[in-house]
Request: fold
Amino acid sequence: MIRIEDIKKQFGDQKVLKGISTVFEKGKTNLIIGKSGAGKTVMLKILVGLIQPTTGTVWYGDTNFTALNTKQRKAIRTEMGMLFQGSALFDSMTVEENVRFPLDMFTNLTKKEKEIKVNKTLDRVELAGSNNKYPSEVSGGMQKRVGIARAIILDPNYLFCDEPNSGLDPTTSMKIDELIRNITAENEITTVINTHDMNSVMEIGDNINLVHLGELAWVGTRHEVMETKNELLQDFIFASPFLQRLRDAANRNKSA
Amino acid sequence: MYWKETTRQMIDIGIGSLVIIGLVSVFIGAVTAIQFAYQLGGSSIPKYYIGYIVRDIMIIELAPTFTCLALAGKVGSNIAAELGGMRQKEQIDALEVMGVDTTAYLVLPKIIAALTVIPMLVVLSAFMGMAGGYIACTLGGLVSEAEFMQGLRAFFNSYNIWMMEIKAFVFAFLLTSISCYQGFFVTGGSIELGRASTSAVVISNILILLADYVLALLLT
Reply:
């Protein structure tokens, strides 16, 4: 479980986060949603320690992550995996080398053991046989899956995903969502996803946090999204005329 | 210490720069020999001095300075672009989230590789420069082979080799550390990446020339 308390972040005069407190639960896919510029990415980067908050605290279980120095953070970081928006794969390495990288860095496994673990993980993300391809030789969806494989190879307790569906077609996007949901449930890990993909919200949103102008505007589950009267969430979810028509049709059916 | 990454950098900087350094050095040595022969003209200075001057000017000045100026352009811009690209594609962030010490993994191997390989390239440059002088003199009939070889052996002072290597170490450190800094802390998009790459070359060149002046004062 990750808990954040009164997180504020200011860049110069610009207040990006204005005191956010929430809990990201274990074994669930926790979503941070909001419009572009709402502060989602800053919040995610504060969670993983890439940005230091101006004030506030990030707790990993009982550990105050914000108060730790770089060396002390290393221990928690080996329990983290992160999928970046652009996948952030190393261009000069093959798919296999990218996935094996954390094992090379942080384990004393033998070459054979690493090979077995890499192949098992690639199989898990449906990329068996792509070992020797370079990131530039695989599609965007495959790159995301390589990114997920690299993120989960050390069996992390925390998985972070920054816009996992950006730039993907709806079918691939759904496969990525399903993969993340299954990994979260199977491994009982705390997953935090930063997204503005409506399919993800409705399909895998166990714990949804709506951030608006640097403040937490709504918290709930995907089942509560349709019922809520929160105008900010309504505006965000049903921004497109197509979804508005669907909602209206659903409401008409309900009243009839 | 990341030996695999350091070895990769050594190969990149060393093997990858052999051709350019060889070419630059041969021509510099040849031009130095031809122009010194021209300056001697009909003077009473013995002709074998051409070999002596080519040798010493390559060792003391041209090999370390020209090699490192050329490497600042080739290797420095490459380092800045590589690290800047990694920063922009969030690869450095990915390493940090994994708990990898990014300075130790990305910067240190480049500096150690440069400090190891560039002094070797400078030695090669000095030899290639002398070879260039020899070829220019013998092919152009400026001086006989025997006279040029006599000049190469005359008045040799081993301290000059130390001077060359000290310069090579200082210049190598300057060009890699400046290029790493420019690339590592790049912000923005492709325009800023281009600027960082250019700044790496320009600042390295200026500081190499400045350091050359200071070292000349200190070491001679």
About this structure: DSSP finds eight helices and no strands in chain B. The helical segments of chain B are 3-14, 18-40, 49-88, 91-98, 102-140, 145-153, 159-184, 190-219. The CA atoms of residues 69 and 205 of chain B lie 6 Å apart.
